[in-house]
Design goal:
Elements lengths: L1 H29 L2 H27 L14 H29 L7 H29 L2 H30 L4 H28 L5 H13 L7 E10 L2 E10 L5 H18 L3 E10 L2 H4 L23 H5 L11
Parallel strand pairs: 2-3
Antiparallel strand pairs: 1-2
Helix pairs in contact: 1-2, 1-4, 2-3, 2-5, 2-6, 3-5, 3-6, 4-5, 5-6
C-alpha cells in the first residue's frame, strides 16, 4: 500500500515539474497576469508534491517508542503546508494583478498561450481524478489533497482560458488583471479548505466519515449480548484508524466469555478497514435496574424487568460518555 502511494506521488511530482515549465513558457510568450496565476500555482504543485512524497515515506514508518500511534499525522501536516502555499500564491497573484492595472504591459500570442494552458489543464485533470481515487482507496489524505488541488487547478485553467479568450476577442487588456484577481480569490478559498482540514486532523477533530463507517460496521454485526456501546472515540491518521469504546456485557459472563466477545467486536472492526486498525475495548458489566429495559437477550437468566425499548446505535449516542442507559428518557 505504501509503495503504491509513493509511486503515485512521484508521478505527480514529475508531471508537475513538466507542466511548470509549460505554464511559465506560456506566461513568457503572452506576458499575461491571468496566465501567471496558473504558472505560480504550478510552483505550489511541485513543492507540495515533493513534500507529500516525504510525508508518505514518513507515515509508512512503523510506530516506535516516541510515536506510539505511528507517523500518520504527518499527512495532515503535508495537506496544511499545501494549503498555505496555495494561499501565498493567491496573495502574490493579487499583488501582481493590481500592479498591472496601474502599470499595464502589452499582451502577445494569447492564442498560443491558451493552447498550452488547455493542455496543462487536461493533464492535471486526468492526474487529479486518479490521485483522488487512489487516495480514497489507499486511505491517504495526502493523495486526496493533491488530487483535489489538481482538479481545482484544472477548473481554474479552463475558466482562465475563457477569460483570456474574451481578452483576445475584445482587446480589453485590463480584463487580464481583473480575471487574475477573481481567480486568486478562488485559489485562496481552496487553500483555506485544505488548511482547515489539516488543522482539524492535527487537533483530533471528529471525522464524521470515520465515525459513521465504524458505527455502520458495528450495526451490521450487532449481537444481542452486546447490550450497549458508549464512549466511542475514532481517530484516523493516514491509513491507520484507532477506535476506543466501552462495551456493556451481561455481568454473569466469566472472564473467558468476556474476552471472546471483546475479540469478536475487535475483529468486526479490523475486517471492515483495509488499513491498519487498532481497537481498544473496555468491558462494562450490565446493571439490571438500568439495562433490563433495553437488553435484547431473549433468554436472560437474571432479567428483572421486561424489555420495553431498543436503542438504535448511532454516532451521537455511541460517542457519549454515559453508561448503560443513554438515550432513555427516564
Amino acid at each position: 500500500m505504501e509503495r503504491e502511494k509513493s509511486f503515485w506521488i512521484r508521478i505527480s511530482f514529475i508531471i508537475s515539474v513538466i507542466l511548470l515549465i509549460v505554464k511559465f513558457y506560456s506566461y513568457y510568450i503572452t506576458n499575461s497576469a491571468a496566465i501567471l496565476t496558473d504558472a505560480l500555482e504550478s510552483i505550489v504543485n511541485v513543492v507540495a508534491a515533493g513534500f507529500a512524497s516525504y510525508s508518505i515515506y514518513l507515515s509508512s514508518r512503523p510506530r516506535d517508542d516516541n510515536h506510539p500511534y505511528g507517523h500518520g499525522k504527518i499527512e495532515f501536516f503535508s495537506a496544511g503546508v499545501e494549503g498555505v502555499l496555495i494561499m501565498l500564491a493567491g496573495l502574490f497573484i493579487i499583488y501582481q494583478a493590481v500592479y498591472n492595472l496601474f502599470f499595464p504591459s502589452g499582451l502577445e500570442k494569447l492564442l498560443e498561450g491558451m493552447i498550452l494552458v488547455a493542455f496543462s489543464g487536461a493533464v492535471n485533470g486526468i492526474l487529479g481524478v486518479l490521485l483522488q481515487k487512489k487516495g480514497k482507496k489507499l486511505n491517504s489524505i495526502t493523495l486526496e489533497a493533491s488530487g483535489k488541488h489538481l482538479l481545482t487547478d484544472t477548473f481554474t485553467s479552463f475558466l482562465l482560458i475563457l477569460g483570456v479568450l474574451v481578452i483576445y476577442l475584445t482587446g480589453l487588456n485590463f480584463l487580464d488583471s481583473v480575471i487574475a484577481i477573481l481567480f486568486s480569490l478562488y485559489i485562496l478559498y481552496s487553500g483555506y479548505g485544505l488548511v482547515r482540514k489539516s488543522v482539524g486532523g492535527l487537533m483530533d477533530e471528529a471525522d464524521p466519515v470515520a465515525v459513521e463507517s465504524t458505527v455502520s460496521a458495528i450495526n451490521k454485526n450487532r449481537k444481542n449480548v452486546w447490550i450497549d456501546i458508549h464512549n466511542m472515540r475514532v481517530q484516523q491518521y493516514g491509513g491507520d484508524r484507532h477506535v476506543d469504546l466501552h462495551l456493556t456485557l451481561p455481568y454473569y459472563l466469566d472472564l473467558e466469555q468476556v474476552h471472546n466477545e471483546v475479540e469478536e467486536l475487535e475483529k468486526v472492526l479490523e475486517d471492515d478497514w483495509p488499513g491498519i486498525m487498532e481497537v481498544f475495548v473496555h468491558a462494562d458489566p450490565c446493571i439490571p435496574e438500568k439495562c433490563c429495559h433495553y437488553c435484547q437477550i431473549a433468554d436472560c437468566p437474571v432479567r428483572k424487568f421486561p424489555v420495553d425499548t431498543k436503542i438504535e446505535w448511532n454516532a451521537l449516542n455511541m460517542s457519549k460518555n454515559q453508561k448503560h442507559y443513554h438515550d432513555l428518557s427516564d
